[in-house]
From TrEMBL:
InterPro entries: 2-oxoacid_dehydrogenase, 2-oxoacid_DH_actylTfrase, Biotin_lipoyl, CAT-like_dom_sf, E3-bd_dom_sf, PSBD, Single_hybrid_motif, SucB. Belongs to the 2-oxoacid dehydrogenase family. GO terms for molecular function: dihydrolipoyllysine-residue succinyltransferase activity. Residues 2-77, 100-175 form the Lipoyl-binding domain. Forms a 24-polypeptide structural core with octahedral symmetry. Part of the 2-oxoglutarate dehydrogenase (OGDH) complex composed of E1 (2-oxoglutarate dehydrogenase), E2 (dihydrolipoamide succinyltransferase) and E3 (dihydrolipoamide dehydrogenase); the complex contains multiple copies of the three enzymatic components (E1, E2 and E3). Pfam families: 2-oxoacid_dh, Biotin_lipoyl, E3_binding. One of its GO terms (cellular component) is cytosol. NCBIfam families: PRK05704.1, sucB. This is Dihydrolipoyllysine-residue succinyltransferase component of 2-oxoglutarate dehydrogenase complex. It comes from Rhodovulum imhoffii.
């Protein structure tokens, strides 16, 4: 039994295309929806997926051939694939003793290409069990633990503590016991890895043009399947105006230190996380037109409501009612009215986000991290409190994943927990706004001509003045203040 692969509909007024590249050759096994070839028309590049699983048989239209809509491209033989698979399901790999297995650097996350070996938990000659942690890697964003792929003995360590290693590099070699036989096969060379490190094979014509134009995959937004970069994507990126490179910062020389003082100093290398925090904060100041506006809020209403319902809230939901849920809800409420504070700049475009992924800045022993509460605008108080508590614990334990710290659209930073009375928070790029909370302090205020004592908090909104005007920033902060001073506004959505 065979299946025909034909030229798909190419678009309005497009009747023919040229076969640019075949990704498979006759005899290759193929899966459903796996890309077989790429067609180029006058307007776009079109990928042709496999309509069935099987073995690629005859290729009818070779590379360079001009074909019309619905023309026959190739034939897939389904019977050969079925015959190759045993009736009882996929066979399990055989096990062998004494096989050498490479311990590799795992995938580190989107846009992360290297890491530093922080600690080895085992030494050469140590016995190890499958999934036992061998070492810990530090990236720019998180710590990554590397487990043993099998039981056995640790052999040679190839990357010592402090070494910088790339994704997919060899860390060590182990002597396996009952290791899967296919695991002993040599690892693929880095050249065989996908061009962007995400498991997506870009179009060959796109890779060729990237090399010609001197572009990297991380500089291009792919329009193909699963973000695959096509030739037209490269062409558009090459034609886009290039931003002027920022001048390299001039290093500040260290002040002279007396010999007796130098002997009492301690020099510790910055962790990758701390280096990244320093770089990103400085980049934010260099790239954004950052400005901060201030206001103050009377916390009496929130504190009274929290005092009245905190026991019932905890009993029903199993989590304490804190201040962060009030601030998160108040910010989501204000962002609907002032959407530019929830936007970002992409080249010469402003991207407005019709959702709120709220970043919550958390201080940890290794530095500041910002886990993200996704779709916070759709959550209730209990959901927000539970999510913040969960992310806070994972942050302090160093267990946050990359995905949990990416995609935020606005950030809240609470310096008040450390006693801060006033500060100007720095933006978390590419976001355009960050709210700084501070210490609640009893202060005298005037109400209806009388001096009274109220629990007051200073609020600070730092924003990117390139897309947020002063009026919008002040309006946002006033709406947050109004919602907190009268929490009933959040329930009434006014």
């Amino acid at each position: 039994m065979s299946t025909e692969v034909r030229v798909p509909t190419l678009g309005e007024s497009v009747t023919e295309a040229t076969v640019a590249t075949w990704f498979k050759k006759p005899g290759d096994p193929i899966a459903v929806d796996e890309m077989l070839c790429e067609l180029e028309t006058d307007k776009v590049t079109v990928e042709v997926p496999s309509p069935a699983a099987g073995i690629l048989g005859e290729i009818v239209a070779q590379e360079g051939t001009t074909v019309s809509v619905d023309a026959l491209l190739a034939v897939i033989s389904e019977g050969a694939a079925k015959a190759a698979a045993p009736a009882s399901g996929p066979a399990k790999p055989a096990s062998v003793d004494g096989a050498k297995l490479d311990i590799m650097v795992p995938t580190l996350g989107e846009s992360v290409t290297e890491a530093t070996v922080a600690s080895w938990f085992k030494r050469p000659g140590d016995a190890i069990a499958r999934d036992e942690m061998l070492c810990e890697l530090e990236t720019d964003k998180v710590s990554v633990e590397v487990p043993a792929p099998a039981s056995g003995t640790l052999g040679e360590i190839l990357a010592d503590e402090g070494a910088t290693v790339a994704a997919g590099a060899r860390l060590a070699v182990m002597i396996a016991r009952d290791a899967p036989q296919d695991s002993a096969a040599p690892s693929p060379s880095p050249a065989a890895a996908p061009a962007n490190g995400k498991g997506i094979e870009h179009a060959p014509s796109a890779r060729k043009m990237m090399a010609e134009k001197g572009l990297r995959p991380d500089q291009i937004t792919g329009s193909g399947r699963d973000g695959r970069i096509m030739k037209d994507d490269v062409r558009r990126a090459a034609q886009a105006p290039k931003p002027e490179p920022a001048p390299a910062p001039t290093p500040v020389p260290r002040a002279p230190v007396a010999a007796e003082d130098e002997a009492r100093e301690e020099r510790v290398r910055m962790t990758r996380l701390r280096q990244t925090i320093a770089r990103r904060l400085k980049d934010a100041q260099n790239s954004a037109a950052m400005l901060t506006t201030y206001n103050e809020v009377d916390m009496s209403g929130v504190m009274a409501l929290r005092r009245e319902y905190k026991d019932l809230f905890e009993k029903k939901h199993g989590v304490k009612l804190g201040f962060m849920s009030f601030f998160t809800k108040a910010c989501c409420h204000a962002l609907r009215e002032v959407p530019e504070v929830n936007a970002e700049i992409d080249g010469t475009d402003i991207v407005y986000k019709n959702f709120v992924h709220m970043g919550i800045a958390v201080g940890t022993p290794t530095g500041l991290v910002v886990p993200v509460v996704r779709n916070a605008d759709q959550m209730g108080f209990a959901e927000i409190e539970k999510k913040i508590a969960e992310l806070g614990i994972r942050a302090r334990d160093g267990k946050l994943s990359m995905s949990e710290m990416q995609g935020g659209t606005f950030t809240i930073s609470n310096g008040g927990v450390y006693g801060s009375l006033m500060s100007s928070p720095i933006l978390n790029p590419p976001q355009s706004g960050i709210l700084g909370m501070h210490k609640i302090q009893d202060r005298p205020v005037v109400e209806t001509g009388q001096i009274v004592i109220r629990p007051m908090m200073y609020l600070a909104l730092s924003y990117d003045h390139r897309i947020v005007d002063g009026k919008g920033a002040v309006t946002f902060l006033v709406r947050v203040k109004e919602a907190l001073e009268d929490p009933r506004r959040l329930l009434m959505d006014i």
